[in-house]
Amino acid sequence: MKVDLVLRNASITRHPGLVDIAIRNGLIAKIGSRISCEAIAEEDLEGAFAFPGFVDSHIHLDKACIMERCSICKGTLEEAVRETARAKAGFSEKDVYQRASALVEKAVMHGTNRMRTFVEIDPRAGMRSFEAIKRVREDYAFAIDIQICAFAQEGLTQEPETEAMIDEALRSGADLIGGCPYTDADPAEHVRKIFALARKHDVDIDFHLDFNLDPAKTDLPAVIEATRTNGYAGRVTIGHVTNLSMLDPGTLAVVGRNVADAGIALTVLPATDLFLMGRQSSSKIPRGIAPANALSALGVRTAIATNNVLNPFTPFGEASLARMANLYANVMQLSRDADIALVFDMVSSQAAAIMGLRHDLAVGGPADIVALDAADPCEVVRASAPALAGWKRGLKTFSRPRPQLLKVKTTSCMPAISG
Ligand SMILES: [Zn+2]
After folding, report:
1. Quick check: 419 pLDDT over 60?
2. Which structural domains are found in the chain, ordered by start?
3. In sequence order, what are the residues at sequence separation of 6 or more whose Cβ sits closer than 8 angstroms to the Cβ of residue 2?
């Protein structure tokens, strides 16, 4: 058998021992132990865990890395929206392209090869951010598949121009629509308008929803109802929904089953939720993270994602999903392997399913492969395992060799430190 590349000694899920992965014409030609083949190139993964790559189902490339342009005094959601809106008016297409490109490069080198980015489109951002992110999508297609979600961060009903601009974006390259009822003067009408635009263009929907800690303050029933009446099961995702963290287990079970029955998926955004929630408390501060594992057990498709990086919503980050999975698992006090393995799925296969994408290492499938410095998914999450290398359609997109410790022998010849 002649192949382009063979990756030797990889650890993969559902396969005991180490395997080789043979690649031809961008596709996986064979997976097995000690494959005998004629390969143009060969690489030894030395037991690294190989999988189809991390999937970031919720990130904001357009407003990332703007710390120096904003001030954070209170650390509240209102302040983050206000400060970012102010900075956004000054974004140029070049500026957004440069910041977004730099972050995409970091994400790729952390092992992410699929991503859904929100892009704000309104009278302040104009179409500038959208145009920049379309170029980023094209220029980095060699390494990562990017979905663009045309997003109404600051409402629709109080700003009718935004509706027309999002309509235009969906005609000119946006993949899906994003809504944000909590910033709209009329949340119920906002939900109706988002569904109307989604149906007009036949695209999926991703809402920022219930970003508070008051279960009574909720737009979730309106989204569930609209998902049912519009026949949109399997096409709606909700992000944050932090007020689910305040429910007792009995109530959570009822709400979770309703979300699952409606075919709505949930993305949890731990870094942002931890930073912005609970600001009114000075002690016994709630975590404010929707319990994704418990909701998954109720049948809800769940993902964990990056959301914001270095801006007033999240003044931290580097687009590493290994770190995000570790942060979530630690904060949610998880310990059992089954729970940790599910967290790994939430930054990989489950997130891909939300985006409607294939995610497996299979013969005949695309050779999209990332090698991580771990033996298995649990170790990836528990130890925030770094990425070592990645291939997209069989071509190597990055490498980050394992660091090497340089052992120095101390001897009597070491110079004495005086002073
Ligand atoms: Zn978001």
Report:
1. no
2. 2-52+360-399 (2.30.40.10), 54-354 (3.20.20.140)
3. 24, 37, 38, 39
